[in-house]
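Posting this for the archive.
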Amino acid sequence: MTAFRFTTAGESHGPGLTAIVEGVPAGLELDREALDRDMARRQLGHGRGGRMRIETDTVEVRSGVRHGRTLGSPIALLVANRDYANWEERMNPWPVEGFEPEEVHLPRPGHADLVGAQKYGHADVRNVLERASARETAARVAAGAVARGFLTALGVEVHSHVTRIASVVAAERDSLAPADFRGVDDDPVRTLDPEASKAMVAEINRLRKANESLGGTFEVIAFGLIPGLGSHVSWEGRLDGRLAQAVCSIQSIKGVAIGEAWDVAARPGSEAHDEIFWSEAQGYFRETNRAGGLEGGMTNGQPLSVRAAIKPISTLTKPLRSVDIVTHAPAQALRERTDSTVVPAAAVVAEAMVCLTLARAYREKFGGDHIDDVRAAIDAYKARIDAR
């Protein structure tokens, strides 16, 4: 099986989150600590709420791995919800004798609550919000950690950094290398600009006191990619479209750009594209990377840059106006435990989605039942394109 795919299941306050990953080749060595490290990174960032003090996410592998190596069969991953102990009666899969759960009738503006209730015929908004919650991304990060292990074995690294929180913007960097990301997780907002970091923390503190939530922007960069992932011959094969869909599927993400998309839109063509050069030592190369490592829907061998904008969280400590979906009376929206901002964590989730998308592209292109087959196919492909 060379088709790489994944799915997740679970609710925010249910027993746990599950991910199933299919199409990982046999023989891939996985690092248990690396999986849990990615789970911990998803919980980072100044401005997180009380849920992060309850959950300490770890990954339990239920199938597909034996003694640290993949078997080629589907990999099942479980992330338990510690908070389920406080919600067992309300979120039990089966009726609880003598207990009648209180229904939620107050949808939040900007959330899936109202439309989800309309679409699926629910009178209780909790039936929607539990699955729509960003807690679901814990399962995505678990699956992404497996994809990252696969990409690491192929010499690919994927990193992220925050570029903006609310009105505070980090200074632009001309170019970035993997070494530049050492210590980014130690920064309270996961930015590479120390001065902007201080201002971002202050902005979070200021708006949190005003009962506001904050959005922002971030960038995910993948290094070491082979040229030719994706395809120009069909719309669904174009890797930029796949990446945009994958990242935009993350809760609260409202926009995705590849490379300098929004900037080059305002430039003349001569300043928008990356000129091509060739030398004996380097082969084909470019001196700029405005395209973000993608041309014609395919990787070109340069670092891949995916940038995204995330809106402020729709659960506010001072709720917005809404309507009771049963009585239609005006009311304040539901108030639940929430974060002030999740921009640093969202960047980690986006890393996972980029890893999963790239893993799928590698599996489609190079196949192979065993990780050594994949490496051999890549080596043969490199030899062919390097000879041209």
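The chain is about 30% helix and 20% strand. The chain has one domain: 5-386.
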